[in-house]
Give the backbone structure.
Amino acid sequence: MIEGWPIEQLGQSADFRHLSDIAGIAVDLRYAGVDNFTGRDLYSPFDCAWLHRDAAAALEQVVAWLARERPGCTALVLDALRPQRVQEALWDALDGTGLRMYLAPPERGSIHSFGMALDITILDEHGRELDMGTAFDDMSERSHPAREALLLARGELTPLQVENRQLLRAAMAQAGFVGIASEWWHFDCGDRDRVRQTFQRVL
């Protein structure tokens, strides 16, 4: 049996901070509505607008960097804490699709379930999402940072779309976040092996 904090009790833990406590960000948790690959709300009735305090502090560094380097731009959080039970529901939703490579198996655990990962993008000065070439949760090659040079050469991404992704990566990297090869929007806060070994999962 996996041990950890039940999401219902998270407000009692000093290890987590609510996203409303972080100044200068916008929040649109996509799994709290229908704008995600399942087409349904996976979070209600739970409040999943939380991060581990370490990731929250790093996100504040992202906010400060954007304010300095790209005034008018705002970090938009698309997903933060994702309880283990929701990770299991996502895993089940992809059964038989061949797309499970985009998810961590529940038994290993998503870094989201420790409050140490973010799905994130950037809003421009008019509150519009920067064009990253795909939408959030697009499970295709065009979402893969590792394939950007090839996609650019093929004309499947534009130079501006790649530039926007590079801006996001620069903002996140300077705060200690680490991207992954298959999703431009996903960033772990630090080393995922260390997180799995030393942090407590949220159920």
Summary: The helical segments are 53-69, 84-93, 148-154, 159-173, 192-198. The beta strands are 4-5, 16-18, 25-27, 50-52, 74-79, 117-123, 177-179, 186-189, 201-202. The CA atoms of residues 33 and 41 lie 4 Å apart.
